[in-house]
Amino acid sequence: MSSCSLQLIGFSMTSKDLMNDSAKKVVATNRKASHDYFLLDRLEAGIALQGSEIKSVRAGQVSLRESYVRIDDHEAWLVNAHIAPYDPASTLNHEPRRPRRLLLHKREIRRLYDKVRIRGYSLIPTMMYLKRGRAKIEIALAQGKKQYDKRREIAKRDAEREMSRALRRRGS
Q1: Exposed, middle or buried: residue 159 (CB in 10 Å: 0-12, 13-18, 19+)?
Q2: 69 close to 124: Cβ distance less than 8 angstroms
Q3: 24-149, which class in CATH?
Q4: Which end of the chain, C or N, has fewer beta carbons within 10 A?
Q5: SS3 sequence of 143-168
Q6: Which region holds residue 142: left if phi is over 0, alpha if psi is between -120 and 50, else beta?
Q7: Whole-prediction pTM value?
Q8: DSSP conformational letter for 132
């Protein structure tokens, strides 16, 4: 066994495989999600995309701003996510805001559906990324914030920023 490989009961991984496993290229984030919701539980899902869509995703032309996840007939769907048309595809292009099927196990979908039925919970996409060349999306079980929760969070962030500034000034 060489110094740069890992042996696990009949399975070997080189250091290159280990590096590729954890490497992911973030394509789009939903920065507004953490402002508008308490993000409780996160889950990774694959996405069923067309050829021109995956090319646009690799080019980073994705917006998750107003998107959400809907569960219908034991299937999860990414709704209202914008993937820009891929210009070289011309006539074979896709519709930018079409619903896209999420690839999850049945028990994961059932568990999420049971939680979403509770009033006040939603499924929100937080990040889209490429992992081993495949498009993945991170979805979060979220509970909506009230206006006073948002104000409290902003005030807390401002206070922490002021404290760190004061400590830096004191240190110099």
Answers
A1: exposed
A2: yes
A3: mainly beta
A4: C
A5: EECCHHHHHHHHHHHHHHHHHHHHHH
A6: beta
A7: 0.74
A8: T
